[in-house]
Every structure is written in C-alpha cells, then in structure tokens.
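Notes, p. 3: input format for complexes.
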Amino acid sequence: MHQDIERILVTEDEIVEICDRLGKQLTIDYQGKKPVFLGLLKGCVPFMSDIVRKVELPIEIVFMSVSSYHGGIASSGDVKIKMDLDIPISDRDIVIVEDIVDTANTIVTIMDLLKHRGAKSVKMVTLLDKPEGRLRPYQPDYVGKVIPKEFVVGYGLDYDEFYRNLPYVGVLKPEVYTKKHE
Ligand code: PRP
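Output follows (182 residues plus PRP):
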C-alpha cells in the first residue's frame, strides 16, 4: 500500500490533534444536549471511531450507507442510499460525520433529507474539506483540514475500496489509477 502513495497530506499525529480539537469544540457546542452522531459509511469509520472518544457528552452513534463515487475517482453526482437509518430522528440534534467534502453532492443531499424528516438541527464534522472540488456551494460546520484538489486515500478514503486502512491520508500516485484503465 505505502509504495502507491506519492506523498502524505495528513500525518497520524495531525489526525490525533484534529480529533482532539474538534472533539473539544463539539463537547462545548453541544453541552446539555444528546446529539446523534451520524456516520456516512464507509469512509467515516476511522474518523468516527477516533472523534467520538474525544466528545464528552451522552451521544448516540448511527450510520447510513450512501455512495456517489461507484468505484471511480470522480463523483457521479447521483447519491444513492444503500442503507438507511434505523432510528427516528425527528427533534434530534444531528452531527453528520464525514471523511471528506468534495463536490458537496453527498452532504447537501443528506442534509436536505434529514431536515425533511424533521431533525431539530443538522450540522456536520468532516476530517477533510476540498473546497476547490465544489459543484454546489457548501461550508462544513467543523473541518479538520482543508486540502488541495488531489485524489487522496487513507484513513477511511478509498480507491476501488482499497487503502481505507492506511493510518494517514496521502495522495495516490496517478499511475495507480491510470494503469487500471489502460
Ligand atoms: C465519499 C466520502 C463522502 C463523499 C464526498 O463517499 O466518504 O461521503 O464521497 O464526496 P462529495 O462531496 O463529492 O459528495 P463515497 O461515495 O466514495 O463512499 P464511501 O464513503 O463508501 O467511500
């Protein structure tokens, strides 16, 4: 895996600092509340696992499975719900947990859906924000790190389902995804 990475963009130490900082902020901002932390599978898994342990509040953890990439390196724009929520969310404070916001197609679609279902509030925390990738205007509420427009993998982010278990976020060597389509 490591040999396919051109350079590291977010180190393991930085990830620890990000989770600490955002966990503290969420603890302050949601004081007195019982928010639902909603992870969008599968990319959220490592970040969800780390950040919830830095939030000192009574929280619930739930997941939805959505997909818009369908295996490639660019968003298809067509957001599919593969697995829905298993709890009612009307009148609940929701914090969506994401690994990355790129085009914002996924987050805008899911935010609209949750508001339509009667959530009291919907905010989101993302490890990475790639603002140059936007196809819709959207500003995440809590951001770990802003990154340039490059295809990144690791710490939840995949290319064709691999590399999610890298402990850091790195830029994939372009020959890895060009080779596949030759
Ligand atoms: C990735 C990522 C976000 C979304 C962000 O999910 O986890 O959910 O894309 O991109 P966008 O802002 O352009 O919508 P993906 O659909 O690849 O599924 P995965 O989490 O299972 O990898």
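The chain is about 25% helix and 30% strand.
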